[in-house]
Specification:
- Residues 314-481 form the Helicase ATP-binding domain.
- This protein has seven domains: 7-117, PriA, 3(prime) DNA-binding domain (GIY-YIG endonuclease), CATH 3.40.1440.60; 125-196, Arc Repressor Mutant, subunit A (Orthogonal Bundle); 201-287, no CATH class; 304-372 and 382-486, P-loop containing nucleotide triphosphate hydrolases (Rossmann fold), CATH 3.40.50; 492-535 and 598-729, Rossmann fold; 540-595, no CATH class; 743-836, 2-Layer Sandwich (Alpha-Beta Plaits).
- The protein has a seven-stranded parallel beta sheet with strand order 14-15-13-16-17-12-18, with helices on both faces. The protein has a six-stranded parallel beta sheet with strand order 19-29-28-20-27-26, with helices on both faces.
- It is α/β, with parallel strands linked by helices.
- Helix content is 33%, strand content 22%.
- Helix 11 packs across helix 12.
- It is built from 26 helices and 33 strands.
- Bound molecules: adenosine-5'-diphosphate (ADP) and zinc ion (2 copies).
- One zinc ion (ZN) binds at residues 553, 555-556, 571, 573-574, 576.
Length: 839
């Protein structure tokens, strides 16, 4: 990774530089070079927002990405028109990270910027002007001139104006000096996307008038005045109960939220009277959307094996930037993280902890919050944009020195990271598929840490082979914990033979006798059960028994998925949906049956097999809203659910003491992953699900149902022989050229016309043959899904030699080739999607 990164002169702030490269919010491949006028040179800094002319007419806001002395060769540089900020809104380390990401993941830096900035802070290609809500013309220190007033008047009528609108209103050619002056006078805000702009949350609060707090006599007078007016008296008493100002006068300052004061049915008009009479006053208060929670507990005492691991990690960090912590499920990795985080925070540096999907790991977030309280920020994927901006600003202001977040939290404005921890580093969901940048958050995090001179800790019970390989090569430090915390033992595995049971008539509703017995036993002992069904490659669909008709998406070449709950057929690729037909649209038969086994069907089967058990289901459908997941978890934790059926979601970090049985409904489906990572993924998935069982004193039981119980992979998982498994897989990967021995790049060629798509894919293939680096090019082949959203796709897979400058040379040449192909009239609307390190 390092070799790819050529040192840029990012940090060069010395004046006397004549050119700046600007990151613009437009779909162009690179930064644009502008001239720095002499008068602006002393203020120029990386990360500042500037106004520039783009093309003939457009005026845009961009961010300074680089300053240097090299004039562009292909065009005459235009001057920067103006600087917008006193302080950079993005720090140089962030820019450096963006540049790396655009280069490495083969995308435009504008795309990285778009992904990195929450939309409340984003620049838009249509820069807009709005009134500053805090501006008051009457009290402002700065007088406005006629033209400025004209703009403000226009803004009062219309919420937002574009630069062009402003130019028209005043009949001038260059509007920016006027807008700049208005910004300086705090009269307007610009360059935010108005429809998504950040709005602070404001509440109205009530407090006693300061004169009353100042003297006891005044209060007595007030009580006298409200005598015989029970409504007013009630409000006054309620206030004094909530805010005991006479014990602690300083409490009055903060007052109480007006809505809270009135929530017990007190009358608003009585409160108004009290305000009018000078008893109370109201004021506006900006509240944090993200609540403050104080720390509640100390970190746990580490067990001796945890302590040993903790010390080992620190020793490795003396010589290695990255350490892999390989600890079996339930070994207590979180507690080790806590100790490390505490040390880093005490040294004054920041910490980022990445989790696969935070909504899905509320348990770990809760545990961390108890220890770190309000200095910990949480960056959720289900957060609103306003909440994200608040975390962003919290990192900037130092309110959050520690952030727990999903993959996009690598873009937060950290300026002094000391450590980045990636928990469950093997998780495929760390990779972003769409849109660009198609980054892998674990790999990007390692790079981010490198830029900050920080350390990276990767944690997993089932490390990715890439990371494990790096550990065996000595590139990463390696620390292992082989037992669970406390007395908990690892679970016992059983293979249940579906075919054999079917022959003997023991299979009931797709469940084997063994699985039924284990579930029954758990239920009788008031224990809980988790049933897992792999979602990938699976979708229930409807089929006609007479003519085998199945529902197809009208835009994509895929079968529509059956959604029992909504009584619909849906396309999982484009969202197309239709009602379930009453009769077969092809032959008119009414014999339509459901095929495939979804979590819904399993839930149904279990309810027939165990009518007395309370069932819960956790999948995309039941957790779509923000609290669905949390509610199910709470119910399960409270023992209101006996059997929880779920997809991948239930494997992630759940820690429930009463779960003793885990059933894997269709073990074979886990093996059928159409990819060189099939074995690795299967190993990880089975071990992770199994890891939910028996996490306290009773040993867990794991039942894997399969038609091929003799498959060697099951044996390896059951023996827990990770290293042996890894060793054998490496032999194959080396022989057939797969990662970690090569770098993969996948290129998808897309077009609405199948012939054009194919032709373009072949043209690309021929051109790539001329790139003089060590490589293997496979394809182009039809995509796994041939047509998606009415676009045909062809895929090429390139395997690159890992040595030297191979990747950099390849990517540079590829960029040129794509640019040239795009200039061919026939290929103008062809799209090429480049995915580096696809997964
Ligand atoms: P992992 O993430 O490695 O699977 P966890 O961090 O979830 O494991 O720990 C498993 C369980 O053991 C949790 O319930 C946790 O609270 C408990 N635990 C782990 N270490 C300690 C410790 N040092 N003191 C008290 N409880 C611990
Ligand atoms: Zn579709
Ligand atoms: Zn039919």
């Amino acid at each position: 990774m390092e070799s790819l990164f050529a040192e840029h002169d990012f940090l060069d702030k010395s004046s006397g530089n004549n050119f700046a490269d600007i990151i613009l919010p437009v779909p162009i491949p690179r930064m644009f070079t502008y001239k720095i006028p002499k008068n602006l040179q002393p203020q120029i800094q990386i990360g500042l927002r500037v106004i520039v002319q783009f093309g003939k007419k457009k005026v845009l806001t961009g961010i300074i990405g680089k300053v240097h002395n090299k004039p562009p060769q292909a065009y005459e540089a235009k001057p920067i028109l103006d600087i917008l900020d006193h302080q950079p809104s993005v720090n140089p380390l962030q820019i450096r990270f963006w540049v790396w990401m655009a280069e490495y993941y083969f995308c435009h830096i504008g795309e990285v910027m778009f992904a990195a900035l929450p939309s409340g802070l984003r620049l838009s290609s249509e820069s807009k002007v709005q009134l500053n809500p805090n501006f008051d013309a009457e009290t402002s220190k700065y007088p406005l001139d006629v033209r400025e007033e004209k703009i403000l008047e226009a803004l009062e009528k219309k919420d937002e104006l574009s630069y062009e609108d402003c130019e028209q209103i005043l009949g001038v050619k260059t509007i920016h000096p006027i807008l700049k002056s208005l910004v300086a006078k705090e009269a307007i805000l610009i360059f935010e996307r108005v429809q998504e702009k950040y709005t602070p949350k404001v509440e109205t609060r009530v407090r006693l008038h300061p004169d009353i707090v100042a003297s006891k006599a005044a209060l007595e007078a007030v009580f006298e005045a409200v005598q015989g007016k029970p409504k007013q008296e009630s409000i006054l008493l309620k206030f004094l109960r909530d805010v005991p100002v006479f014990q602690r006068p300083q409490l009055n300052e903060k007052g109480v939220d007006k809505a809270t004061l009135l929530e017990e049915g007190d009358s608003e008009s009585s409160l108004k009277t009290l305000i009018k009479n000078g008893v109370f006053e109201t004021f506006k208060h900006v509240v944090n959307r993200i609540e403050e929670e104080a720390a509640e507990r100390e970190a746990s005492e580490l067990s001796s094996s945890q302590q040993a691991a903790f010390e080992e990690i620190k020793t490795h960090f003396e010589t290695k930037q990255t350490v892999l912590l390989h600890g079996v499920t339930g070994s207590g990795k979180t507690e080790i993280y806590i100790k490390l985080i505490q040390e880093v925070l005490e040294s004054g540096s920041q910490v980022l902890l990445l989790l696969p999907e935070i909504a899905l790991t509320t348990q770990i977030v809760g545990r961390l919050k108890q220890v770190f309280g309000s200095q910990m920020g949480v960056y959720h994927s289900k957060y609103s944009d306003n909440e994200r901006v608040e975390v962003w600003n919290g990192v900037l202001s130092g309110r959050f020195s520690f952030v727990v977040g999903v993959r996009s939290s690598i873009f937060l404005p950290f300026d002094s990271l000391g450590m980045v921890i990636v928990d469950e580093e093997h998780e495929p969901s760390f990779k972003q598929f769409d849109p660009a940048p198609r980054f892998h958050a674990r790999d990007a995090a390692i790079m981010l840490a490198y830029f900050h001179q920080a350390r990276t800790l990767l944690g997993s019970a089932t490390p990715s082979f890439e990371s494990y390989f790096n550990a065996t090569q000595g590139k990463y430090g390696y620390v292992e914990i082989t037992h669970r915390f406390g007395d908990a033992s690892l679970p016992e595995y059983h293979l249940a033979n579906i075919s054999a049971d079917r022959k003997k008539n023991l299979l009931k509703l797709d469940s084997t006798r063994l699985l039924r017995e284990k579930i029954q036993n758990a239920l009788e002992n008031q224990q809980q059960v988790i049933i897992f069904q792999n979602r990938r490659g699976y979708s229930p669909y409807i089929q006609c028994e007479d003519c085998s008709w199945t529902g197809q998406c009208v835009q994509c070449d895929v079968s529509l998925t059956y959604h029992q709950f909504a009584e619909e057929l849906r396309c999982h690729y484009c969202g197309y949906k239709e009602k379930i037909p009453q009769a077969c649209p092809a032959c008119g038969s009414s014999q339509l049956t459901t095929q495939g086994m979804g979590t819904e069907r399993i839930e149904e089967s279990l309810s027939l097999l165990f009518p007395e058990a309370r069932l819960g289901r956790m999948d995309l459908d039941t957790t779509r809203n923000k609290y669905g997941y949390q509610r199910l978890l709470d119910e399960f934790a409270a023992g209101q659910i006996d059997i929880l059926v779920g997809t991948q979601m239930i494997t992630k970090g759940l820690d429930f003491g009463k779960v003793t049985v885990v059933g894997i409904w269709d073990g074979d489906r886990i093996l059928n992953f159409p990819d060189f990572r099939a074995g690795e993924r299967a190993y990880q998935q089975i071990t992770q699900v199994a890891g939910r069982a028996g996490r306290r004193d009773i040993q867990g039981q794991v039942v894997i149902q399969s038609r091929n119980p003799d498959n060697d992979l099951f044996g390896k998982v059951i023996r827990g022989d990770y290293f042996e498994f890894f060793r054998q897989e490496m032999i194959d990967r080396k022989k057939y050229y797969y990662p970690p021995f090569v770098k993969l790049v996948k290129i998808t060629t897309r077009h609405a016309d199948a012939k054009t798509a194919q032709k373009a894919a072949h043209a690309l293939h021929h051109q790539m043959a001329n790139i003089a680096v060590k490589k293997i090019v496979l394809g182009p082949e039809k995509g796994i899904i041939v047509r998606i959203k009415n676009q045909y796709q062809f895929e090429s897979l390139i395997k690159l030699d890992k040595q030297g400058t191979t990747q950099a040379v390849f990517k540079q040449s590829l960029a040129k080739i794509i640019e040239e192909l795009q200039a061919v009239p026939e290929f103008r609307s062809v799209r090429w999607i480049v995915d580096v390190d696809p997964s």
